[in-house]
Amino acid sequence: MSEQIEVVFETAAQGKVLSQYLQSRARVTFIRGPLGSGKTFASCQRVFDQICEQRPNRNGVRKSRWLAVRNTYSDLETTTIKDWKDLYCNDDMPSLGRFIGSTPPTHFLDFDLEDGTRVKAELIFLALDRPDHVKKLRGTQVTGFWLNETKEISKAIVDMCDGRHGRYPSAADGGPSWHGMIGDTNSPDDDHWYYDLAENVKPDDWVFLSQPGGVIREQVGKNSYRWVPNPEAENINNLPNGYYIRQVQSKSDDWVRVNLANEYGSVSSGKAIYGSTWQDAKHTSKYELLAIPRFQKLLLGFDFGRTPACIIGQLMPDGRLRVLKELVSTGMGIRTFMDLVVLPCLKEEFKKFPISGMEAYGDPAGTAKSPNDENSPIGILNDEYGLTTYPTATNKPKQRWEAVEYFLTLDIDGQTGFELSSACLVLRKGFNGGYQFRRLNVSGERYADVADKNSYSHPHDALQYLCQGAQGEINYQWLEQHQEDSHQTVIADSVTGY
Ligand SMILES: Nc1ncnc2c1ncn2[C@@H]1O[C@H](COP(=O)(O)OP(=O)(O)O)[C@@H](O)[C@H]1O
Ligand SMILES: [Mg+2]
To answer: Which InterPro entries does the record cross-reference, listed alphabetically (predicted)?
Structure first.
């Protein structure tokens, strides 16, 4: 006999993102947040809500089967099962059904709802370090998966789960009214499958939610910051006072970033060049930024050499820099890069912007002619492509980094002065640590004082020239001189042509 449940388990969501997580019915929804932000609690609530929502069969029974997956058995027992039982299987409440504690642990939910229907559901807890559990995972018809601490679960298992929901309840019972996956996790590193799916691939009908950090950076002085409590943090009412800020002192900065501030981790071993001024959540737009035609001018930053890069941005009237696009290539000179990469992109994505109205900036070393070319890269852009291109005032690294940091730390009425389009994946990973000072092979934490040359450095160099140019740090004399020279050449050519 099951008891009739009259208490509706409704605890108000403890924040905006938690509430989105509870309400989403997309095929896949994952929530990423700091420690203690109420993620696991919310996952339990969602599983419970959804087993009650399953459409009843013709006998009025709401059938469903959920699998709760965790990486190890000890984590499964000490956290996943414990959290579930605290909420839905404790002595203070009417029984919702039997909980069988072994092979594998399963809650057989069985109770009546006020509307006269009955819930009959299974929640099976599986650990990936148990071969018999994995076998069960492969062989069970499932309505929904709950991937607890999602980042600990391999992509292969996630793919397998995604191919296995939807076959329970059977058609005879009306089929599942919803099926899919949910999951909660702390932030992974930015080379993790989760990052790639959430920030790059973005599959249809997969929702990736991100909670505010428990702490945020407060800028102190130009190049340093400290962590302060985030007034936007979720689930704060259920945590001890000062829960987040108390943990800051004893922990490494990298640990704080990931576990308390909810920023993606970086696997680079060096020191991030913009480590003290870059804030991923603040500076990266959730969306692909589009050029705003009203502000006619597009600004381009170029890095030359055999791994050319071009960054496209727009400076807004209020002084904000919007970085719209990154173009990177390897093994080609400037002409091939323009013909195969830059021009096709401009034609396709920036149709409304004539080249004659753009302005580009590049490494001042790009005014030098190479031994086997009669023109320099900057000369080529000006003369052959009609793109007004200036060498910047200096290519000293310190000044170039400062040009970027000017925008990163610029505050316009509480809004950031630097916005990076979500399409700029390489720049973003570079900001998050890929663009770095290399760690020196000596004892202690010592780093080189020049940027490591790697796949992130070229687009970052191009961005620096763009930021210099956007602030007017350019070598105007060169252009004037160059224009005079080309004018002379034209006259000379036309004279000899006669
Ligand atoms: N809606 C809620 N009502 C009451 N307590 C909650 C609620 N959500 C979370 N908690 C409590 O807050 C703490 C952290 O929640 P938890 O879900 O474990 O966080 P996370 O999984 O994000 O680390 C736990 O003690 C949990 O019981
Ligand atoms: Mg948790």
So the answer is: P-loop_NTPase (IPR027417)
